[in-house]
Amino acid sequence: MSNASNGELNFGDPQDERKPRIVPPTVVADAADAAVHAAARKAVGAAAGIAVHVAALDWQGIADQLNAYGYAIIPGLLTADECRDMAAHYAQPQLFRSRVVMSQHGFGSGEYQYFRYPLPSMISALRNALYGPLAAIANRWHELMDLPERFPADHADFLARCHAAGQQRPTPLLLEYRAGDYNCLHQDLYGEHVFPLQAAVLLSQPGKDFEGGEFVLTEQRPRMQSRVEVVPLKRGDMVIFAVNHRPVQGTRGIYRVNLRHGVSRLRSGSRHTLGIIFHDAN
Predict the structure, then answer these.
(1) What are the C-alpha distances in Å from 151 to residues 80, 99, 102, 143?
(2) What's the rounded Cα separation, in Å, for the pair 192 and 121?
(3) Any idea what the CATH number is for the domain that residue 21 is in?
(4) Of 275, 273, 111, the residue nearest 202 (C-alpha)
(5) What domain range includes position 227?
(6) Does 166 have pLDDT greater than 80?
(7) Is 177 within a domain?
(8) 29-64 burial, b if ≥16 CB within 10 A, otherwise e?
(9) What is the pLDDT of residue 44?
C-alpha cells in the first residue's frame, strides 16, 4: 500500500491465500503512545482530544490490516476512566432512543441500547474523526468490488445522504452482556445506504470483569467454507472491521467476500461495548 490517504491496497502475492494465515499484530500505538494521548485529552477536553488522537493514528498500518484481514486493532484508544464513564451511560435511559433485548428477536442473549441525537460529545467526536480516513479506504474497496456508491470525505455529508433516504435514526450503541449471554453472527445493515466499515470499543477488562465473550468475525469466500477470526481485545481497545463485504485478491483477480460478526458466550461477569456505526437507520 503506497498511500493510506487515498485507500490504495496492497494485497501481496495472490498465492498467499493458500498459505497458513499469520495472526496480525496490533497496530498503531503502544501503551506509551496511548498514555501520551490520554494526558493530552485531560488538557484540552475529552472530545477535542480524541479527535487529535484519531488523526495521529497510523492510518497506513490500519489500512494494511483491514486489507489483509478485514479488521484492525487500535490498542488503548480509551483510558480505563473513559471506559468506566462510557459504560455508566447504560444506566441513563434519557441518552437512548431504544432498547433491544436480543432474546426477543432471535439475535442471541443480552441487550443493547441505541443512543439518541444529540450523541454524547465523546461518541460524536469519535464517529466524526474516524469517518474521514475510513472513507478513503471504503471508496477504494467499492472501486475494487465494482460497487457504485462512493462516500464523501465529511461525515455530515454522508449522513445527509442517509437522512434524505429516510435513514434518520442514530446507530451508535452500547451493548451489555452478562453470564450466559452471546451475540449471534450478523451484519449491521439499516437501510439502502451502508458504510462498509464500523468500529467497536471494549469497555470492560477480560479476565477481571468477565470471562469468555470473545469478539468473533467470520468470512465466507466463494466456493469455500467459512473462516473464523477470534479478535483479542483488552479494555479500551478499538477494533475496526468490515460491515458486510471486502475485496480479496485471488489468483484470477479481485473477488468479494462476505463477513459477519458476533460475540461468543460470556462464561462469567459482565461486559460492555461501545459500537460505532457510520450510517443511520430507517
Answers:
(1) 33, 30, 31, 11
(2) 27
(3) 2.60.120.620
(4) 273
(5) 4-276
(6) yes
(7) yes
(8) beeebbeebbeebeeeebbebbbebbeebbbbbbbb
(9) 57
Tally of CB atoms within 10 A around 7: 23
Model confidence pLDDT, tens digit, residues 26-80: 554 555 566 666 665 665 567 888 999 999 999 999 999 999 999 999 999 999 9
CA separation (Å) from 42 to 13, 19, 224?
A: 45, 46, 49
Burial class (CB in 10 A: 0-12, 13-18, 19+), 152: middle
Angle at 212 between CA 209 and CA 217, to 5 degrees: 120
Cα–Cα distances (Å) from 207 to 103, 188, 253, in that order, read 25, 28, 43
pLDDT band at residue 224 under the 50/70/90 scheme = confident
CA distance 58 to 204: 25
Is 152 domain-assigned? yes
Query: 250 forms bridges with which residues in the sheet?
Result: 253
The answer to whether residue 281 is domain-embedded is no
The answer to whether residue 183 is domain-embedded is yes
Is residue 269 very low, low, confident or very high in pLDDT (cuts 50, 70, 90)? very high
Radius of gyration of the chain, Cα coordinates, nearest whole angstrom:
18
Relative to beta strand 108-109, strand 182-186 is antiparallel
Question: From CA 109, how far away is CA 181, in angstroms rounded?
Answer: 5
* Domains contained in the chain, number: 1
As a whole-number percent, the residues of the chain with pLDDT over 70 amount to 84
Query: Quick one: cell of 135?
Result: 472513507
d(CA 260, CA 228): 10
Q: What are the Cα distances from residue 44, in Å, to 36, 51, 74, 88?
A: 13, 11, 22, 22
The total of other beta-carbon atoms located within 10 Å of residue 282's CB is 12
